[in-house]
Amino acid sequence: MRITCLGTGDAFGSGGRLHACFLLDFDGGRLMVDCGASSLSALRRAGIAPNDVDAIALSHLHGDHFAGAAFLLVDAQVASRRSRPLVIAGPTGTGDRVAQAMEVMFPGSTSVDRRFELEFAELEPGREVEVGRSSVTAYPVVHPSGAAAYALRLRCGSRVVAYSGDTEWTSTLIDVARGADLFICEAYFYEKRIPYHLDYRTLMEHRSELECDRIVLTHMSEDMLGRLELLDCEAAEDGGTIEL
Ligand SMILES: [Zn+2]
Ligand SMILES: [Zn+2]
Question: Can you give the three-state secondary structure of 92-123, one letter per residue?
């Protein structure tokens, strides 16, 4: 499996990084995990055609994690002229929120005839859902966003990738990371503790409880990006790739 880190930034463009977006490429399947507002540009920067994405799994419905789905769908309808089906999985309400985002930004864009099948799959805690060629299990985390917020466990062929989404520390992260080949985890601040986001120090205090081979940090603020050389852990960067 190859993972392309398309967007590893926070909501506020810290370090000039793009919004949350990872592409998991495995056994002929291509699953996008989170699709922040800048994700269409990120795909094109990486030379990946948007039509090659089979499915999208969304952790929660903040703009830096889901707003790119609106751009991707408008692109699919107008510019890329998609014909392959697309599945978007996310918390209950994802279909409505994506449609609202499309209508706010591109009025009328939800009422055109699509040449492709679009399916929304609702994630529910603890239930494994088929999403394209992978299966996704959602774990509730602590991050208010107008709908449920999840960490995700993504089973793609023989590999398992865990993804924290955005959350303060919760023991749920132990469950989502257990036995994973890779855990992509938020580290928003270095040591400052705030509600709803995770800091590096707290994560490291719990490192021994996380039974996974490898952790890669993402969703970093300027505070974290200024201290990358102090980290005892890998950090993702835009455009970087991870082989599993
Ligand atoms: Zn975020
Ligand atoms: Zn968020």
Answer: CCHHHHHHHHHHHHCCCCCCCCCCCCEEEEEE
